[in-house]
Amino acid sequence: AQSVTQLGSHVSVSEGALVLLRCNYSSSVPPYLFWYVQYPNQGLQLLLKYTSAATLVKGINGFEAEFKKSETSFHLTKPSAHMSDAAEYFCAVSADGGYQKVTFGIGTKLQVIP
Amino acid sequence: GAVVSQHPSWVICKSGTSVKIECRSLDFQATTMFWYRQFPKQSLMLMATSNEGSKATYEQGVEKDKFLINHASLTLSTLTVTSAHPEDSSFYICSATRDRGGGEQYFGPGTRLTVT
After folding, report:
1. How far apart are the first and last CA of chain B?
2. Which of A102, A110, A111 is best to mutate for the B interface (most B CBs within 10 A)?
3. B29 φ/ψ sector (left φ>0, alpha ψ -120 to 50, else beta)
4. Nearest CA distance, B16 vs chain A (angstrom)
């Protein structure tokens, strides 16, 4: 079974500051890990995914995440927050790369303060 | 590429009526489609997985007679909420995986259902 835990349902950062959204996973098999972003009343957009090719994964909009097996973590970071980054972010895990069940975390709402 | 659309984007219906939501993969063949439900300020909960030409697999606790899923072609899946009640009001999101596409799920924009 797989699960993810997102620490912090709300995160506030100042514009230009570092963004750090935390995600820890639990998986009985080597996991596939994803970060998605959701803007109000919209579907999910994939930011990046980890598929065991490289531990540091770069995604769209300047986001990246690092897979740390020893810490079972997959935290999302961005060096400098923009106002347009304000959204809900979901960490997700899958056992088979997403062909079958993907389990989502509860989400972290990112607020960017001007 | 890999665009998924949903129709309608929002719908309001009266209690007791049925509502059909369509999910289409516009530029790829989707052998598997997923239906999720999202309550306000909560995560996505998988309702069911549907493979083209076969019956949907429902998650535990999801009433298959209430949420009818049909995956009739490689580009279309429908979710019908039968005899809708106010508690069925929610945001419904579908996703699709592209055949031999590396496992990523492509999400539709969602459908907001309000049952009055």
Report:
1. 37
2. A102
3. beta
4. 25
Is the CB of B32 less than 8 angstroms away from the CB of A100?
yes
Beta bridge partners of B70: B78
- Give percent of chain A with pLDDT exceeding 70: 96
Which whole number is the average pLDDT over B35-61? 88
List pLDDT tens digits, range A23-61. Answer: 999 987 888 899 999 988 788 889 999 987 789 999 999
Reference B110, options B4, B33, B9; nearest CA is B9
Distance (Å, rounded) from C-alpha A107 to C-alpha A112?
Answer: 16
Average pLDDT over residues B65-81: 93
Residue A102 forms contact with B (CB below 8 Å): yes
Q: In A, which residues are within 8 Å of B43 by CB distance?
A: 90, 104-107
The partner residue sitting opposite A43, judged by closest CB among B102, B103, B107, is B107
